[in-house]
Specification:
By secondary structure, the chain is an alpha/beta fold. It is built from 4 helices and 8 strands. This is B-box type zinc finger family protein.
Length: 191
């Protein structure tokens, strides 16, 4: 079954999905090792026309493109990894077993921070850590909280208290069925 992207904005770009994330790194070798051994990415062929050091990796329906820049410190403030801040920029991956993730990170001696998000009885466990260049990585069981587009819920954008409100948005049966179907298709694509 073909998935038609949900796009409610006339004139929006005809996007299909997130393809890859590009990251500057001090050492392609160190970063490749991290993304392979820690996160399970697989190196893939990279175009031979590139005239700079780099690597492409792929898994879970997304690519990681590493671009080596040994003088990254001249352009970026990441000299040493900052403290692990769950409110910082990051790339996030869903997992099947947060407990196993924690045990493996412990076995590898990796520093990490955990957090829990709860909404309407649903609980998401999050684990945050840095890659060799200080980029934040999150591992979570985010599928525990349903994806409900605000456009399908009774929402008044003038009510700024919506975000702080304890009242759950009210969605119709069709909207919930559509989002459940879309979520399942997204999960199938990533495996």
């Amino acid at each position: 079954m073909d998935t038609v992207p949900v796009n409610n904005f006339e004139g929006a770009l005809p996007l299909l999905s997130l393809n890859h994330v590009s990251l500057l790194c001090r050492s392609v070798w160190d970063s490749m090792r991290f993304y392979e051994e820690i996160l399970g990415f697989v190196p893939i062929k990279r175009p031979s026309s590139f005239k700079f050091n780099g690597a492409w990796l792929y898994n879970y329906g997304i690519g990681i493109h590493l671009i080596e820049n040994p003088s990254i410190d001249d352009f970026d403030t990441i000299v040493e990894p900052q403290s692990i801040n769950p409110k910082d920029n990051r790339i996030s991956f869903q997992c099947t077993d947060v407990g196993l993730v924690l045990r493996r990170l412990e076995d590898m001696g990796m520093k990490y921070v955990t957090a829990v998000v709860e909404d309407e009885g649903n609980k998401v466990e999050q684990v945050f850590f840095h890659d060799p260049d200080g980029y934040m990585v999150e591992i979570c069981n985010c599928e525990n909280i349903p994806v409900i587009p605000l456009s399908s819920c009774s929402f008044n954008p003038r009510l700024s208290s919506f975000i702080k409100s304890a009242q759950p948005p009210k969605c119709g049966f069709m909207e919930n069925a559509m989002m459940e179907s879309l979520s399942m298709e997204m999960l199938n694509i990533s495996f």
